[in-house]
Design a protein that fits this description.
Elements lengths: L1 H26 L10 E8 L18 H6 L6 H16 L6 E5 L8 H18 L3 E3 L13 H6 L4 E2 L3 E2 L4 H4 L4 E2 L1 E6 L2 E9 L3 H4 L6 E2 L2 H14 L4 E7 L2 H10 L5 E3 L24 E4 L5 E5 L7 E9 L5 E6 L2 E2 L8 H18 L2 E5 L14 H17 L10 E5 L14 E4 H7 L6 E7 H11 L13 E4 L1 E6 L8 E7 L8 E3 L5 E7 H4 L13 E3 L4 H12 L10 E4 L1 H24 L3
Parallel strand pairs: 1-2, 2-3, 3-4, 4-6, 8-10, 10-11, 11-13, 18-25, 22-27
Antiparallel strand pairs: 1-14, 5-9, 7-8, 12-13, 14-15, 14-16, 17-19, 18-21, 20-25, 20-26, 22-23, 23-24
Organism: Helicoverpa armigera
GO molecular function: 5'-nucleotidase activity; metal ion binding; nucleotide binding
Family: Belongs to the 5'-nucleotidase family.
Length: about 600
């Protein structure tokens, strides 16, 4: 706990300094261009998560009412429009040269990707014509076999310098997967180096990719490019904003860091919509030498497009950098060519997604499932138990009376205003976009305890990790006053091979059978506790289970029932609130003084 607190304090200090440095950059933005300088416009986005068509204000489905009211945001056609305009201006010399870069996680997030996988992702990315993209952790969601054709079919390089691929020859053979790429723009060499969080090893479906720590790998590649005469170096990757700041600080040769993964929203001045700024754009990081290195992200879901102007001197050092993301609202036109691709897919997708599965009398909350018991998690876990029990033919009502699903596997809420409201297949595809069958795992009580400890090992109200478990047939009580590894206080398990389902205290030497997504059974999200345990893959996934359950039980009205009790959460929340308030107060104070 104390280490996390120190890390948060360090992050506060870095961001406060960065805010003040941004003010200096803004104040100097009217300086005339020195002789021999080089101006560059960087357009960038990250974490697009298959939002190929425009979305609602909160990045859900853009309904017909939203469309008619002009309240839709983002989408690839709007991104394409802005990028094409900027490139046209560069060609006719009314604007600076342009680099358009993407920092990963094109995969996963809408029914569009769930249905069409890598094919639709490749087609839409190619339609945007980025100069380079980095890998994101979600690019591994369909395994190596679901990633390699995406890489093969991209018309731009995909970058990552910190992978060790000797045990994944199929991925190692991809010529379009590179450590870096060099662009020659008007005689100036610009190198772009990719990176990806090593956490992908536990966030993705298990594979044999190994990782080098980001700073170490980028330093090595930056040195190689410098020795080739490349003066301007950009790190483009997907490790989260804290790591972006570390790269900017510690890699001496880097001039700019463009990141993703944490969906960080940076902004100067009054924000244009509902997102709250987490720092200035760009956030400037001071290296030991005194150099200032900008770091940027552009939120997520194509709602914004980062726009950064940079002026370099003749030696490739930054004279100034300034800008703000562009809010891609209804005022931004949609490129007709990319819109035509959207419309071509949309008809078939609507046939699938508009199928009504059942109804709900309550809001199905999928947003809080990484932090506490949520009724969407209860619904899905109950549905797994119900579907399995419906086919069970042994003694009692089932031999697998418990089920779990990780909070990170629940990607959306269903919050329609009517009651009872229709639940469509499209709604459920947004909630559960991942592939993989349900698996029955046999586990002893001691390992059940270990499983639950791991569920809250990295619990953080600010950046809630996906490993927090939702459950059915189990009850757990946590105490967050205790350190990680000692937070589980009580566990109760429901009996299955019994005539009257009751809960009893977990028997640490007993045997239990638990249903779970295949991702967890293979050690996903760091659940190594399941390694080498007896398991049986079933013929359905959690999506099928949930559809089946809703069809049989509509209208559904799942509640939160005390399956997960968290004590002393206020201590974690208070430290998180202090971090948010400290940063927000300084940002507001500094920027109010210059506006």
């Amino acid at each position: 706990y104390s280490r996390n607190k120190r890390n948060k304090n360090v992050l506060i200090q870095k961001l406060l300094v960065a805010t003040l440095l941004a003010v200096v950059a803004l104040a100097s933005s009217n300086v005339l261009k020195p002789k021999g300088s080089f101006e560059l416009l960087i357009l960038h986005n990250n974490d697009m998560h298959a939002h190929f068509e425009q979305s609602s204000q909160r990045s859900g489905t853009c309904t017909n009412d939203d469309r008619e009211a002009g309240k839709c945001y983002g989408g690839f056609p709007r991104v394409a429009h802005v990028v094409k305009e900027a490139r046209a201006a560069a060609l006719n010399h009314t604007g600076p040269p342009v680099l358009y870069l993407n920092a990963g996680d094109t995969y996963t997030g809408t029914a569009w990707f769930t249905i069409y996988k890598w094919k639709i992702a490749a087609e839409f990315v190619n339609a945007l014509q980025p100069d380079a993209v980095s890998l994101g952790n979600h690019e591994f969601d369909n395994g190596i076999s679901g990633l390699t054709p995406f890489i093969e079919n991209l018309t731009c390089p995909i970058l990552c310098a910190n992978l060790i691929l000797t045990k994944e020859p199929e991925l190692q053979a991809e010529r379009n997967l590179m450590d870096s790429v060099v662009f020659n723009i008007n005689g100036t060499k610009i190198g772009v180096i990719g990176y990806l969080t090593p956490d992908t090893k536990v966030l993705a479906i298990r594979n044999d990719v190994e990782y080098i720590e980001e700073v170490t790998a980028i330093k090595k590649e930056a040195t190689r490019l410098k020795n080739m005469g490349v003066n301007i170096l950009i790190a483009l990757g997907h490790s989260g904003f804290t790591k972006d700041l570390e790269i900017a600080e510690k890699v001496e040769d880097i001039d700019l860091v463009i990141g993703g993964h944490t969906n960080t929203f940076l902004w100067n001045g009054t924000t244009p919509d509902i997102e709250k700024a987490e720092g200035p754009y760009p956030t400037l990081v001071k290296q030991k030498s005194g150099r200032l290195v900008p770091a940027v992200q552009a939120y997520a879901y194509t709602k914004y497009l980062g726009k950064l102007h940079i002026l370099f001197d003749s030696n490739g050092e930054i004279i100034r950098s300034n800008g703000n993301p562009i809010l891609l609202d209804n005022s931004i036109k949609q490129d007709p060519e990319v819109l035509a691709i959207v419309n071509r897919y949309r008809e078939n997708i609507m046939i699938i997604t508009e199928e009504v599965v059942g109804t709900t009398s309550v809001i199905l909350d999928g947003q809080s499932c990484r932090l506490k018991e949520c009724n969407m998690g209860n619904l899905i876990a109950d549905a797994m138990v119900y579907t399995y029990a419906s086919e069970y033919r042994g003694y009692g009502w089932t031999d697998a009376p418990a089920a779990i699903i990780q909070g990170g596997g629940i990607r959306a809420s269903i919050a329609h205003v009517n009651s009872p409201a229709n639940i469509t297949k499209g709604d459920l595809l947004r909630v559960m976009p991942f592939d993989g069958n349900v698996v029955k795992v046999t586990i002893n009580g001691r390992d059940v305890w270990r499983m639950l400890e791991h569920s809250v090992w990295r619990y953080n109200p600010l950046r809630a990790p996906g490993q927090f478990l939702q459950m059915s047939g189990m009850m757990v009580e946590y105490d967050f006053q205790q350190p990680p590894g000692k937070r589980v206080m009580k566990v109760y398990m429901r009996c299955g091979e019994c005539l009257n389902p009751e809960y009893s205290v977990l028997n640490t030497t007993g045997k239990y059978k638990i249903l779970m997504p295949a991702f967890l059974s293979m050690g996903g999200d760091g659940f190594s506790v399941f390694d080498d345990l007896p398991s049986t893959p079933l013929h359905y996934d959690e999506l099928n289970c949930t559809m089946n359950y809703i069809e049989k039980h509509s209208p559904v009205y799942p509640s939160t029932e005390g399956r997960i009790i968290i004590n002393n959460l206020d201590k974690l929340k208070s430290s998180a609130a202090t971090l948010n308030l400290s940063l927000s107060a300084v940002v507001a104070l500094v920027f109010s003084s210059i506006l």
